[in-house]
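$ run holo --ligand "zinc ion" --emit C-alpha cells
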Amino acid sequence: MDSLEYRRGRSGRPLARAKAKLKREGSNLCWRCGGAIDMQLTAVAPNHADAWTLDHLTPLSQGGSALDPANHREAHRRCNSARGNRADSAPAQQVNSRNW
Ligand SMILES: [Zn+2]
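-- output --
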C-alpha cells in the first residue's frame, strides 16, 4: 500500500483515483444510513459488509456519471447494495436498454 501509488495515478483508472480521494477527503459517513464507516476495517477487509464503498447518487443505469465526483457518495457496502433488495422500489422494469 504505497501512497505514491495513487498520487502518480495518471496511469491508474480514474475511478480508483476518485475512490482514493473520496476516502481521504470525504466525511467517511454513510449517506444512506448516516453511520460512520470504519476505514480501518475497510483497509483490511474491503469486502466486509461494513466496509467503505463508493456509491452513486444517480445509478449509472439511470444515466448517472460514473466518474463525476458530484455523483459519488460514501456508503457501507451493505447499504450500497441494500437498495437492490428493496422489493418496493426494485422495478422489474430495468429495461434491457441495449439499443443505445
Ligand atoms: Zn450505512
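-- notes --
Residues 61 and 94 are 8 Å apart (CA to CA).
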